[in-house]
Structures are given as structure tokens and as C-alpha cells.
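C-alpha cells in:
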């Protein structure tokens, strides 16, 4: 195995290399020669540790690292691309063998990923694509949006006005909105009365939903593109005194969503699942396969989403 100090020294060379050589593949000749013989150290990069989704991702990383006898170092970007750039450079200097990243900006992070791969580090993107990574493991986000919105529209009897609580413009969120919009096309009695972007958290979900309900009070359903935003929408519905008229669904299958599904009288009726811990565990397995000379046949690995409702929540294992 190449020494960590040797691979770290390649940073200055990698920084000057041509970025266009990188792609979402593990076969680049300039990276293969420096690849580790085994995964001994892992750097996990999450978007925002205040979101329980990323706490679950950290849990999965620790489980995977313990299973293979590797060390784990988790870094929180706090939704800042500059932070993620700096964190990747630090991981290069430390000579980690594997970086698993949930990218804040899938395009903006590419130069840093190129530097890491050219220093011999395997890079696996999780939850959302990241240009230049060896592979990406993510939920089938289009399917998640379809399942959540199909259930919502069915519970509305196929007609009514709905709001969409959108989020930051990353691929996985765009895909969920695409899935929901497909369901709108299948239900001609459904009208999207408003769509605004939250910051993916409960507070902004509350704020944008309150604004939309003020502008368009005649609403029967709300789709939140993740559970925190959906639960913010629930608060807005309750504050507006519309709990008996408006139904809300989300995406994630988070512990908070599970608790809300169990809360009597809540407008929240369903969530399409993700499995953040499994994303990381699978990412580590893929990295081990790459080390062994068996890269994945497909560079994007999709994990199916399942619907959890009030009727099925007790059967759902959760995160």
C-alpha cells in the first residue's frame, strides 16, 4: 500500500492537473496507480449534521468502518461549498483511503473531488450525485416523489389544490419534485396552487408554507420534498387552523416523521422512505470492490423507496 504521506504529497500535482480528465468512473489510469490496497481510513462528509438524516448517515459510517477495521472521520459542511472544499483538501493531506460525500453542490465540488482521486483516494457520493466521483449511491428520488404524491392525491380523492414545499436545487430534490409532478399529470383533478423553496429544514418549511397558505388558503394537500420541510408545513397548517382540511406528506422516513404519523390528529399522513445509513454502508462495500478490482457495472446505484403511512408505521423499522 502506498504510504499516506506519499499520497498526501500528490496534492500539489493534482491541483495542477486537468479537471476534465475526471468522470464518474473508477477506471482512470492516473488514479489507479495510487489507489490503496485496502480501506483503512474513511472521511465522511455530510451536508448538515443538524438534520437527523445525516446523523443516521454518520451512524451507518461508523458501523461500516467498525466492520472492516477502518477509522472514520465525519465532517459537517453546514451547507457550505467552501467548507466541503476545505474538508476534502484536509482529507487529502491526511491521506485517507476513502471519501464518502453528500455534496452541497454537485458541480461546484468537482475540482476538489478531482484532486482527491488524483491523490489516489476513492470518492463515493451518497444521497445526491457529485461530479467526478467514482460512483453514487442514492435513493430512487423520482420514485420517492411519485409514491409520496400518489398517496397524497389518492387521499384527496384525486382532486383539490395542493402546495409543493420545494428545497435547495440539488439533483435528489429536483428528482423528488419531478416524481411529484408526474403524479400531477396523472391526476387531472389536482392543481398545484403554489410552490416555494425551503432551506430543507423545519423552520423554513413553516415560513414558506405560511406564506403560501396566506396567499392561497383554499388548499387540501401539501407535499414537502423532505420530512423536515413537511413537518414545518404541518406546523403552518395547524397554526392556520386547517388541520381538519389539509393533508401533508413528505420524503425521508425520519424518526420525527414516524413520531408525527403516530400523533393523533396530525395532518401528516405519509412519507416515502430513504435509508441514509445503508447508503454509506453500501458506499463502503463499493469502495472495497473497487480496491479489489471489481468496480460497479453502473456508476449510479439506486435504493428503492417505500411508502410509510399511519396504517403501516408500526411495521416500519426506521433509521
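Residues out:
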Amino acid at each position: 500500500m502506498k504510504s499516506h504521506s506519499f499520497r498526501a504529497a500528490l496534492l500539489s500535482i493534482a491541483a495542477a492537473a486537468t479537471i476534465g480528465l475526471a468522470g464518474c468512473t473508477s477506471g482512470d489510469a492516473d488514479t489507479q496507480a495510487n489507489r490503496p490496497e485496502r480501506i483503512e481510513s474513511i472521511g465522511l462528509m455530510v451536508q448538515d449534521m443538524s438534520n437527523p438524516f445525516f446523523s443516521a448517515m454518520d451512524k451507518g459510517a461508523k458501523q461500516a468502518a467498525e466492520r472492516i477495521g477502518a477509522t472514520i472521520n465525519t465532517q459537517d459542511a453546514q451547507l457550505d461549498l467552501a467548507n466541503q472544499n476545505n474538508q476534502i483538501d484536509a482529507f487529502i493531506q491526511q491521506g485517507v483511503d476513502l471519501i464518502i460525500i453528500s455534496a452541497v453542490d454537485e458541480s461546484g465540488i468537482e475540482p476538489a473531488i478531482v484532486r482527491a482521486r488524483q491523490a489516489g483516494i476513492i470518492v463515493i457520493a451518497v444521497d445526491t450525485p457529485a461530479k467526478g466521483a467514482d460512483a453514487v449511491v442514492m435513493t430512487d428520488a423520482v420514485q420517492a416523489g411519485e409514491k409520496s404524491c400518489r398517496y397524497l392525491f389518492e387521499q384527496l380523492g384525486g382532486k383539490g389544490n395542493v402546495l409543493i414545499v420545494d428545497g435547495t436545487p440539488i439533483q435528489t430534490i429536483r428528482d423528488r419534485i419531478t416524481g411529484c409532478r408526474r403524479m400531477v399529470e396523472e391526476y387531472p383533478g389536482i392543481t398545484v396552487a403554489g410552490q416555494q423553496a425551503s432551506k430543507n429544514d423545519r423552520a423554513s418549511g413553516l415560513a414558506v408554507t405560511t406564506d403560501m397558505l396566506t396567499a392561497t388558503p383554499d388548499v387540501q394537500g401539501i407535499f414537502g420534498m423532505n420530512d423536515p420541510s413537511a413537518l414545518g408545513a404541518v406546523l403552518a397548517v395547524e397554526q392556520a387552523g386547517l388541520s381538519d382540511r389539509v393533508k401533508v406528506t413528505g420524503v425521508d422516513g425520519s424518526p420525527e416523521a414516524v413520531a408525527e404519523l403516530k400523533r393523533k390528529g396530525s395532518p401528516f399522513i405519509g412519507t416515502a422512505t430513504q435509508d441514509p445509513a445503508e447508503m454509506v454502508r453500501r458506499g463502503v462495500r463499493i469502495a472495497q470492490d473497487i480496491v479489489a478490482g471489481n468496480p460497479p457495472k453502473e456508476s449510479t446505484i439506486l435504493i428503492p423507496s417505500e411508502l410509510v403511512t399511519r396504517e403501516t408505521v408500526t411495521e416500519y423499522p426506521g433509521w
